[in-house]
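cron nightly-structures :: item 1 of 1
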Amino acid sequence: MLPIALDAVIQADVVVGYKLYLQMIADLTAGKTVYASGMRKEMERCEAAIEAASCGRRVVIVSSGDAGIYGMAGLIFDLCRERNLNVSYGGDTSTVTLDFSIDVIPGVAAFNAAASTVGAPLMHDFAAISLSDHLTPWEIIEKRLNAAALADFVMAIYNPRSKSRPHLLRQAQRVILQHRPPTTPVALVRRAMREGQWRCLTTLDRIPDAEVDMQSVLIVGNSATYVWKGWMVTPRGYLDKYGVTI
């Protein structure tokens, strides 16, 4: 956990989050009011946080990775907008009366953490795409996969496979194979930078489904991505630019 995030948790009166994430920082929440809930309870968690903040309490919502990337920051703003609350960022020095202020504290996104374990696969343009169709229809996800693959983006794929939708990873693989060769390098990283981390370098046609879960990130290379001595790298283009030959 980054120092600024750690400090925010320590200073909080109320800590809200997905129960698995709060279990990981249980030593930091002793003596605080804790609101924990399970999957698909995001609305309830954010509403509880807003209610506590509106009462003048200092609240932290814990997300994994970065709160603004598939995290809870966006939903907090959505709900505040729906309620027409007067909120601003924590450093606001205006004299306007606020319901409360908000700070979005940056974290290390899952694609950053996963990429660091396998080399430098995100050195050039990339797209992050979630395969979860809980909030986004599959038809839209498929369009995004097609567009990113056609445009030769490296792809960081979130939520690749769950018990309720084990088939979507294979569907995504078929979409990408329409635009990329089967030998395209792919990194699979599970629980990146956490206890139990596991990584695998493979190819687009050999993704090991059984090893993929909701704590995994897949990084699909572009046409220039290569694997060298166990590292996956997407060159930025420096060697071509300056005429360097190997």
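cron nightly-structures :: done
The mean pLDDT is 94.
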